[in-house]
Input
Amino acid sequence: MLPYKFISESRVGELLEWEPVVDAVEHALKSVSTGCAFQSPRVKIVLPESNLLYSTPGYLKDDKYGALASRVMTKFPSNRRLQPPRSALNANISLMDESTGVVKAIIQGNELTDWRTAAVSVVATKHLHKEKPKEILAIIGAGIQGRIHAIAFQTCFKFREVRIWNRTGKRAVDLARKLNHELKTDAFVSCETVSDCVKNADVIVTAAMAKEMLVKHEMVKKGAHINAISVNPSGTDLDEETYRISKVFCDHWTGVEHELQHIIAFGAKFVGQVGDVIAGSVQAPGAGETSIFQSLGMAVEDCALARLIYDLDQIVK
Ligand SMILES: NC(=O)C1=CN([C@@H]2O[C@H](COP(=O)(O)OP(=O)(O)OC[C@H]3O[C@@H](n4cnc5c(N)ncnc54)[C@H](O)[C@@H]3O)[C@@H](O)[C@H]2O)C=CC1
Ligand SMILES: O=C([O-])C1=[NH+]CCC1
Output
């Protein structure tokens, strides 16, 4: 018998529901502004053939979602060309006993990463785009993050129309069709151009890893909110002017200083962490102000989800 619990991807998938996941990451986002988050910037090692190994250790001090955990994630882009294809990103979380530091569970972390990243965008949208219209959602990039964001946003906000664009158009068409079927709606539609997708959208999610700045500032409606998910040192999904004219928020400053110098160099106006708005120390963007949540991902989000999954695994049979 293993000296720790092993929680597989399929078990994680059985246990997660949006309401508790959103609640867990809301605690994690707030913790960075209240002194309850202990974490460092992500450590990244470049392996031969440009594969990557990331490590994110952290401790979240919280009665409900507190945990000591460390995530190890690899990025092997050529996995997508395997037969059958495998995800390029593969993550595992080691959850430790808070009083001894001894590992008590290993949790496979791909589902966890997908759910927590989309839930973080939901929380950012809830606080940065509060009491603003949420009729049209635009999703740029129909990969893993595009899909999970579509599901999370439709479950939590119920947009009238959810537009999806992808570089390979068929992928957007297929995703819209599948989601309409799975969620029993006709809200999902595919778009042929980025401009058609983004035009008049109230909320935008960019998850395309583009190098060529797909979303131009003139396409974005004044007062819209953008969740910029992609983290790519060699490019951004949004153009420089969109960063300059928007109020830009992040999940944690230390991560921004470490990983987002290329966006700071655009002259982006970083005004706060989402947790500062939740905690009330920074104001949310006003009416007519365009906002960006530049998502990076951070250890305490993984801690909160690992604790939630571990606790649910004990009680849900
Ligand atoms: N902020 C966070 O916490 C997290 C961020 N990410 C980031 O989200 C992004 C998307 O990740 P996944 O959905 O897992 O990847 P994926 O590979 O499943 O999807 C990426 C999508 O972008 C499209 N794409 C790729 N290159 C493009 C280009 N040059 N122009 C236009 N479209 C292009 C692809 O067609 C694909 O549909 C990545 O940058 C990843 O690093 C991923 C996990 C967590
Ligand atoms: O938090 C995360 O898993 C990631 N953030 C950017 C790439 C992957």
Remarks:
- The chain has a mean pLDDT of 96.
